[in-house]
Amino acid sequence: MISNLSRGACLLLLALAPLLPAPASAAVPAQPDPVVFVHGWNSDGSTWQTMAGRFAADGRPADRLDAWTYDTTQSNAVTAAQLATEVQRVLDRTGATKVDIVAHSMGSLSSRYYLKNLEGAGKVDAWVSLAGPNHGTATAHWCGGASCVEMRPGSTFLAALNSGDETPGSVRYATWSSPCDYVINPQDSVTLAGAANHTTGCLDHSGLLADPKVYEEVKAHLG
Asked: In terms of pLDDT, which residue wins out, 15 or 211?
């Protein structure tokens, strides 16, 4: 038998229930955007071992670090179409809504083509170009094949890529160039209008991939 006192306490609790705060649910930490790494000419996904390893050591989940490999002899437009498929695969696998792209050297061109011409800007949050020949490099006259021809200053491919807005959409663009990178000639080829353009210390062309300061700046840009 419930006493009058217990009955009164129950009635009071029922009356106050709508005014009491709901129990706090466990907060689910936000997942970072997956990173799709796009290597340069005559290279493959293994070139990202140091940088991807640093991201992993800093807590970014390994399944959100995609060091992709492609055929560097083909046209950058073909690579861009393959990149579109790869980005969608990563989004489907992770459940993310956008990725970040970190590109080195020629990888900057195919990824920019994807952003500009293949609706990639809607699927990418931040884009990084490390030593990218965004306006061409004279050293591309020393190699052959479709992709090398496209990297040459004044190429039809680059003229179309750089026409109009060089940084389309709401993507957060950033570039890094080095005064000691003799693969990219001229050095200011890397810079894009509308991007956050950075100059590193004296690093060679591949040195940007392993430099700890560059990594910290890239990490800060991705957020």
From this structure: 211
